[in-house]
Design a protein that fits this description.
Blueprint: E1 2-3, E2 6-11, H1 17-26, E3 30-33, H2 35-43, E4 54-57, H3 60-65, H4 69-78, E5 84-87, H5 94-103, H6 135-146
Parallel strand pairs: 2-3, 4-5
Antiparallel strand pairs: 1-2
Helix pairs in contact: 2-4
Length: 147
């Protein structure tokens, strides 16, 4: 993908590896990888992070939940130390705080919204088992009941 002369590529497991490698080798400005695939490309000398100056770890809490901590730590060690780093997280669990503290300097935390992460008391969840062909009808009935 390219926009105003800035090129980017998504690299992830399960995608067409040959196409992804070809895009990276062609030269890109922005790479949007999963941690494991990023490390694979670095180890294969396909991608070099020596000149990478910005690192964004989106959904850092989810990546930790999914077991990507070793891959994240490896990326943080491979990339230049004077980088700018952004970590986004819907929550701020101890694992994310620990990694931020270990690998970031002069960090700040920006909270958007409330830190009270309780489910809304006005939301009711129901599980309705149905046949596939009745799904839309039952959904419509439940929506109608709500209003």
């Amino acid at each position: 993908y390219s926009y105003h002369g800035i090129s980017s590529a998504c690299v992830y497991g399960g995608g067409n590896r040959h196409e992804q490698i070809a895009m990276v080798k062609k030269g890109i400005d922005i790479v949007l990888p999963t941690p494991g695939t990023l490390n694979d490309l670095i180890e294969a000398n396909i991608l070099n992070l020596d000149s990478c100056s910005y690192l964004i770890l989106d959904e850092a809490d989810r990546m930790l939940d999914m077991g990507f901590e070793p891959q994240i730590k490896k990326v943080l060690l491979d990339i230049r130390p004077d980088r700018h780093t952004i970590m986004t997280s819907a929550t701020w669990p101890p694992g994310v705080r620990r990694i931020a503290h270990e690998y970031m300097s002069n960090s700040i935390i920006v909270n958007v919204g409330s830190l009270d992460l309780k489910a809304a008391s006005t939301v009711t969840q129901r599980v309705v088992m149905t046949e596939l062909d009745k799904k839309l009808e039952i959904l419509q009935e439940n929506v109608d009941k709500s209003y």
